[in-house]
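I hope you will forgive my troubling you with a question about protein structure. I am sending you one protein, given as its amino acid sequence and as whole-number tokens for its backbone shapes. Thank you for your consideration; the sequence and its tokens are set out here:
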Amino acid sequence: MDERERRWRAEFPITDRLVYLNNCSLTPLPRRGRMAIERFAREWTELGGRAWYDHWVGEYEALRSDVARVLGADADEIAIEPNVSAGLVGIASAIDYTKRPKVVVADIDFPTDGHAFHAVAPRGARLELVRSPDRVRVPLELFERAVDERTAAVCTGHVYFTSGWIQDVRALAELCHRRGALLVVDAYQSIGAVPFDVHASGVDYLVGGTLKWLMGGPGIAFLYARRDVAAAARPSAVGWWGVADPFAFDIEHLRPGAGARRFEYGTPAVAAIYAARAGIALLEEIGIATVRERHVALSQRLVDGARSQGWAVRCPVDAGERTAIVTLEHPEPQRAVEALRERGVICDSRPSLIRLSPHHFNTTDEIDRALELLAPLRAAAATA
């Protein structure tokens, strides 16, 4: 382990005890995140309600700028959300389905990507699924066949949560726009793991959150709405923070906030804002290019080792096509995950899959330890 790795790992005390390979579900709390939460607690303790005006509203707006910087967006194109589901619900509420009722979603997308649009079926929305031929990726031509003049939007992941495959959202945005449809991107699995510029991508909407690769914990998510798209949007899912002047306390009128702000809801979770800002600061200190380099090296070592043991790998075998998400087929994945946990390796399961996801602070020794413990699980599964 070199000095750089020691410095990274010092931010995450959990690494003293465990091999933590569940970062695409929840990255452990870094030291600076805990310090930020403790600072919030002191302000609350010492100032009470005055903390809103002396500190918390400023932190809220600073987070908006932080997220904009990470995405390559402008601050007025960012809304702060309580979670990604809320962001998708807001977007679904803002789309007109009268002439274009179809919404296209992939069958390997995260369920909320479909649920948000199923829920607006009474307003005319009709969901159509494109089906992955290998449960790993969705070729662009399948979307091309599905998107037509009756399509209101495509809603799909930048990275698929069970395979880690990185979708070409720029090509998909071009396809959608040629057909007059919007592109809504769920980037929960990608932001903080791969370099990304939302303006260059051409997407119309994007949602993401801080609890995964951004190292900022749960309770905070974000929504990007391209400036011209936001200006025309009239979401019916609204809250008092999403209006032009929340502190006017005007119950008689609904005046949408400027830009993406109109997609915001109610009083935010302030402690989560502090943790989120600390995680983003850590990412920027390390550098997204460095994070990507580490993900490629560590996940490829894991994939190569698993394949040599005979595992069926349900993710791209080439690290250039995926994030650090590595999924292995297993008939009883939860039992396998529990067996690994008993030996100090933390990962997760999805239906018929063991899912492992190293981050920049993991080491090759930890990958080798995980592989050592995976080997007997593979042998047991093969004889079951």
